[in-house]
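Case study 2.
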Amino acid sequence: MCTDPTATTAASLSRRRFLANGTATVAGVAALGALPQALYGADVSEADRAAVFAPAPTTPAEALAALNEGNRRFVDNKTVAPHRDFARLREIAPKQAPFAAFLGCADSRVPIEIVFDQGFGDIFVSRIAGNIAVAEQIASLEFGTAVLGAKVLYVLGHTACGAVSATMAGTDVPGQISALYYHIRPAVRVANGNLDKAIIENVRNQAMALRDGSTVISKLVKEGKLLVVGGVYDLNTGKVTPVELGT
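Prediction:
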């Protein structure tokens, strides 16, 4: 049987392309594996690396310090991006044990794990527009603290919050959006038209509602097993500023 030289040449070219593409794919995967270090690790101190990959915090004070340090790294553009690989994914697949829980806004500009330089399994996050403490959110956060063992419960608002701004405007809105207003109006009433103040007051109100209104959460606080704190994330700088809660 005669061999078609054209077919032989085509097959040879196909094999070469396959090998070349395979080599490129392997190189690409290797490059992706190196991305976290290249993007996040260039200027990170050894102290920060050691702290991030140390055992999880065991006390509320340690947990809050870990969050504060994570946000500092984020603001300084020196994030380590810990626990964001498949090894961590497989490690926590059987069981989760987050060291902190969050009530955050649903705003797409506030990715809480990134803002605090955390990864898979580190924090338990419940998000809703206006970061309001409604029954379903409270139930989730009771689970995150009492069952999963989070040491800090953090209410995180952010600058230029649309839910707070809409509540201040008080205009008609479609659907069920206005259901948010009831929970935010107390903050708006004391803000005297100041959006920034209303955002801070709303964080304070929701945090105090969780701390004092949930028997599960208040018990953990009284036993010294949980801290309830609040903060406001700045969309322009990335910095989280603590909000002082009332007694």
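Strands lie at 100-104, 123-127, 152-158, 227-233, 240-243.
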